[in-house]
TrEMBL record, chains A, B:
Biological process (GO), any one: 3,4-dihydroxybenzoate metabolic process
UniProt entry tagged with the keyword Mitochondrion: no
One Pfam family, short name: IclR_C
Protein name: IclR family pca regulon transcriptional regulator
Keyword Nuclease: no
Domain IclR-ED: 70-253
Coiled coil: none
PANTHER family: HELIX-TURN-HELIX TRANSCRIPTIONAL REGULATOR, ICLR FAMILY, TRANSCRIPTIONAL REGULATOR
Keywords assigned: DNA-binding, Transcription, Transcription regulation
Molecular function per GO: DNA binding; DNA-binding transcription factor activity
Length: 253, 253
DNA sequence: GTCTCTTTGTACGATTATCGCACAAAACGA
DNA sequence: TCGTTTTGTGCGATAATCGTACAAAGAGAC
């Protein structure tokens, strides 16, 4: 019998998949919907949801299930364990104050970037980002920086996981173009995004290195779009980012 | 057979408890430690952890398990489903800018408050708070505001869940004193905290009401401690808080 | 109002995955 | 080196899970 199946607890795996079925678009699920989303039998999903309700992770109004704030507890172990946010926050605050722009640090989780710390200035993005928020890696400066640090095949695998959606008219969705850009980023040491996530938003990012030189996170700065050439903007801000990068080199994820 | 036991999936419940065993103090767990923390048999915990590793929620270095950022996905459904952060963030930003102080919104999860949105100014707290962060309700202004909205017995139950620790010399830990304070807060409509969480930190909070008049969250402002009487500080800032409270009345959790 | 379609709740037997013990191996510390 | 603790693995008994089946309850349609 295979190692992967011998010590697998099916009930646990199913339950977690059910929790993940609750998304931004579908915050309220009926049993039938959850069954459809997860692909599990209705009876199975029902047992999962009732169990989760009994444990306080879900609430049931007789018709729909919703996840309660208690599920956030499951993430605390990770967030609290991570020394990264605590360490980088002062640097983010400084950088944000110096430049007058929003700064963030994120890590890579498969094909998503996850914000772990942030110092916000005036709102330029329409969506509100906070630690725990996710954005796809392919169209963000931090995502591209982290993807560029991976072996090419691995980056390609991650890019293939989900369809590359054009969030704006400027979003690069051609995988070959993206691969070329990743190589350029690796050489150059930083990534630029010009309104590929959202119209009006530009962004610059550099990698943050761990104790063994590996890329553990990315640091970025968000800017309002302007007539100014992207390169001029990069020339102005990248030195500050590289300075923080240098001071934070050696941190552990 | 009881409803509570008939449709309970033991494996799921155990796995979730194992995930919660990873805390800020214990981010890395061996099988034996996790077994001790959860009270489950070592073999059971091992199966849970191997399952979680296989699913990507845990990482195993051959000796210790750690939770990966993937567990944060479990919370996204809740955070994204919650309209609260998106709605309140602009108000928080405004309030923070006007007053020059940090502002936050949190909700109650059992005996903890959970930050769901925050606009930070200069750092006055030593600990860095972010959405998803938790603090005990009994010693925070937002926690007391939300506790004061509950029926007395229910508030008492929540206060009894965990020991009331004196975080500073000023922390109120006597449950009768706390109950009296909750009544005062309910009458007055706001809560004041003077260095009970941390020396040097004062805080004011008001409740936020949902569409049916129920308390769904709390709004606060954090201030550096000073010689000024707490009442004078409250008189200065509470009107601004109440203004935001009024504008946000009717929001859903 | 009735009819149909979908969804939910419940029951139950077969199956299978889970449990916890027990033992071997390995790591650890003295 | 030895003793202790922890980890990995095998296995039989057990109990929990699975999915089907059916009744009941809504939800629409007409």
């Amino acid at each position: 019998m295979d190692v992967k199946t011998r010590d697998m607890m099916g009930g646990l795996a199913k339950g977690l998949k059910v929790i993940e079925a609750f998304s931004a678009e579908r915050p309220r699920l009926s049993i039938a919907e959850a069954s459809q989303l997860t692909g599990y039998d209705r009876a199975t999903v029902r047992r999962c949801l009732l169990t989760l309700s009994e444990l306080g992770y879900c609430a049931y109004d007789g018709k729909f299930f919703t996840v309660t704030p208690r599920v956030l507890r499951l993430g605390t172990g990770c967030l609290a364990a991570m020394p990264l946010p605590k360490i980088v926050q002062p640097w983010l605050d400084d950088l944000s104050e110096q430049t007058g722009q929003s700064t963030s640090v994120s890590i890579l989780d498969e094909s998503d970037i996850v914000y772990v710390a942030r110092a916000a200035q005036r709102r330029v993005m329409s969506i509100s980002l906070m630690p725990g928020s996710r954005l796809p890696a392919y169209c963000t400066s931090m995502g591209r920086v982290m993807l560029s640090a991976l072996p090419v095949e691995q980056a390609e695998d991650l890019l293939s996981l989900k369809p590359l959606v054009a969030r704006t008219a400027k979003t690069v969705t051609d995988i070959e173009t993206l691969k070329g850009e990743l190589l350029r980023i690796r050489d150059r040491g930083y990534a630029c995004i010009d309104q590929e996530v959202e119209i009006g938003l530009r962004s610059l990012a550099v990698p943050l290195f761990g104790p063994r030189g590996q890329v553990v996170a990315a640091l970025n700065i968000g800017l309002a779009a302007s007539e100014e050439p992207m390169q001029a903007v990069a020339d102005r801000y990248i030195p500050s980012l590289l300075k923080v990068q240098k001071e934070l080199t050696g941190i552990s994820g």
